Amino acid sequence: MRHGEAGWHSLDKERELTEAGRASVAAVAAEIAKSPWRPERIWSSPYFRARQTAAIVSEVLNCPVEECEFITPDDDPGRCLEALLETQVSPLMLVSHMPLVGSLSTLLVDGHRTGIPFMTSQAVLLDMPVVGPGCADLKAQFLP
After folding, report:
1. Structure confidence by residue, pLDDT tens digits, 72-101
2. How many CB atoms lie within 10 A of CB 57?
3. What radius of gyration, in Å, describes the C-alpha atoms of the chain?
């Protein structure tokens, strides 16, 4: 999931969700709650807007949040793939930023890092029985 719409701040890490951003995150979380899918845990970027997004989703879906330093906007999707290979947590939700969410999604689905665009608050559901590049199938999208 990409974080909700954020306002401006002189420090990118400190940008906060707008009222519209909070509302769209809550709406997407409600749609996920209606689906048969539930994460066991949420991995969140340490940036403030991602932490706010993860907190809203966590409250709606009743699951814990773990902050991860390796899913910030310009991090390498390969590092996240390594962490996915190491974790036993499944299903898992990631709350991060563009361009990472786009490049990670294409790495997992298509095996390359070109990257697809994500709207703010957009979430996708990937089914990945085996963790690896090109091993995931896009099963659903949740749009604001």
Report:
1. 999 999 999 999 999 999 999 999 999 999
2. 27
3. 14
